[in-house]
Amino acid sequence: MLPHVQCVVGHVLCSQCRDKLASARICHVCRAPMEGGYRRSHAMEKLVESIRAPCPNAPYGCAAKPAYHDLQPHIQTCLHAPCHCPEEACGFIGSTETLLVHFTAEHGWPCTTDVRAEESFHMELREGFNVIDLDADRKLLFLVMVSPERLGRAISAVCVRPPRADGDEPVFYGLELEFDRPSRWHGDRQKSCFDVECTDLSDGLPNADDRFQFLVPHLIVLPYDDDPINIRACIYTQIR
Q: Which UniProt keywords apply (predicted)?
């Protein structure tokens, strides 16, 4: 908080107005002379500091009540900020906990649970959105998208989470995908590991052309095949 000042009588100026009247030698209200200029008003600063405001993300779990002058900086980095549903024409917003329920109950998107970072797990991916609940705490969700392409099915992913707070160590996520098709000889196998972008989806899904696309060719999944894609996956985390 920037300091507040007052004249000898007690008329107060905020710091911004004080800067504009830095050379004044009389009070802007009562015209009282001020030989040394405005003086710091500790009483007003305590009063301003005592004015608290609840975070607008309180419905999503935030219990913080910062000083009013600190409210906007808090909102910009609040870890309880709601995330958005990426489905077109769906305006649902909420915490990642409620978002997971919305994904599965409202849209019926398949969800993979009991997933631990750095541990391999099995997924059955269907065309459209697929959900991963990392560590089963509903606070960190991954959306895995499967879309038809000319040469097969393209798989991409995003991490759904609120913005990182200032001062927090940046955490980066990676996703490893692998499928294989045994055959009489060597079989077919493909494996890739790629970075996953974090987003609250407030601006919708990131451009597909800016995301890594893991391609499962028609050789593995035919264009008219509605069966899920069986794939091995692993989520990696790294603090940089």
A: Metal-binding, Zinc, Zinc-finger
